[in-house]
Amino acid sequence: MAITVGRRSALALLAGLPLLAAGTARAQSVLGPGVGVDPNRTPVRYTMTAFRVDSDTTLAVYESADGTDFTPVAEHAYSPPTGLVRDPSVLLHTDGHYYLTYTIAGDATAIGLARSRDRVTWTFLTDVPMLVAGRLDGAWAPEWYADAAGRVGIIVSLTWGHGFTPHLLIPLDAGLTTWSPPVPMLGLGPTGPGSLGHIDTTLVRLDGRLFAFVKNEDSKLIELAVADRPVGPYRFVATGDWAGWGGPREGQSIARLPDGGHRIYLDAYTEGRYYFSDSYDGFRTWSPPAELPGLSGVVRHGTVLTEFSSLT
Fold first, then answer.
1. Measured at the alpha carbon of residue 304, what is the angle toward residues 128 and 172, in degrees to the nearest 5?
2. Alpha carbon separation from 15 to 9, 176, 186 (Å, rounded)
3. pLDDT of the residue at 15
4. Contacts of residue 307, Cβ cutoff 8 Å, sequence gap at least 6
5. Residue 22's pLDDT band (boundaries 50, 70, 90)?
6. What DSSP character marks residue 117?
7. Which of 52, 173, 210, 233 could form a cystine bridge with 187, CB 3.0-4.6 A?
8. Contact in structure between 49 and 88 (CB atoms under 8 Å)
9. Closest Cα to residue 31, out of 146, 120, 117?
10. What are phi and psi of 259, to 5 degrees?
11. How far is CA 250 from CA 4, 127, 287, in A?
12. Sheet holding 209-216, edge to edge
């Protein structure tokens, strides 16, 4: 049965004010992408979820104390009942569970959800259908998002066969199993006839603005756009190979470092390598990319969750 969103809720979504059903728990205020960062808190652990080069049906989980040297938590942690577990993104919720969202197939019209208490044993929750009009050709690369208050959503790139447009989903229940229809993120879709648009969108809140790190599917480079609201409109402030990361690159994930900087993790998928690069000036400049020790050549399209000593 299709889910409808009322006029007030739809207007709030478009205004960039994520709504949650009454009683819905809020997520940890700082997620893997660094959304809602509290500058007075120091990261204590980094959790990476990824799929391995040798399998896109098995979730691998790693952890690190410094965001550089990762060790296995469980390299064969979860396989969904059917389909793939590509592009996994992880969230730590205030109910004490980790939540996973992932791409289930290249031509899927839904995304997968799973849950774990310990990051080792995972339980399949549901496949979330994309409630859109017309034929949908794919739902790719879902990524968790939280607003400044810690309310959660999922960003997913949808295609109708003519390029990708990132959309925002909002949960309608406390268990994160029922979701609103996707709302397009303005300014991040195809730029014109023949354009493939943008994918792998991850949001970082900094100085009161939202920074969207996106993969340009035409150039295969990671670019940067800015907006005041989650659904935009977004304005590109850095395009091409602006940060010196090279390309093709995808699956970018941003984490806050203990000394106040930010780190981006990059999948150099055509080279079979995984890189990281750091910024200490509000994303304006970045260090030369370096291979991620131990995991370069091993994992694909991971998300790094920044964890803190307590929840807010």
1. 30
2. 10, 22, 11
3. 46
4. 28, 43, 44, 45, 46, 47, 92
5. very low
6. S
7. 233
8. yes
9. 146
10. -90, 10
11. 33, 24, 18
12. 198-206, 209-216, 221-227, 235-238
DSSP 18: -
What six digits make up the tokens of 257?
């470092």
The pTM for the full model equals 0.88
Structure-token pair, residue 26: 């809020």
In SS3 terms, 138-162 reads as EEEEEEEEECCCCCEEEEEEEECCC
Asked if pLDDT for residue 286 goes beyond 90, the answer is yes
Cα 98 to Cα 113: distance, rounded to the nearest angstrom = 11
**Both tokens of residue 172?**
């309608």
CA distance 246 to 155: 25
Determine the Cα–Cα distance for residues 308 and 59; give it in Å rounded to an integer. Answer: 23
Q: Facing residues of 221 across strands?
A: 216
Residues forming a β-bridge with 255:
263
Per-residue pLDDT reduced to its tens digit, 169-219 = 999 999 999 999 999 999 999 998 999 999 999 999 999 999 999 999 999
Instruction: Decide if 187 contacts 225 (C-beta within 8 A).
Output: yes
* Helix, strand and coil percent figures for the chain, each rounded to 5: 5, 45, 50
What is the distance between the alpha carbons of residues 92 and 47, in angstroms, rounded to a whole number? 10
CB atoms within 10 A of CB 138: 20
Q: Token pair 């996106």 is at which residue?
A: 214
- For residue 154, report the phi and psi dihedrals to the nearest 5 degrees: -125, 130
- DSSP type of residue 7: H
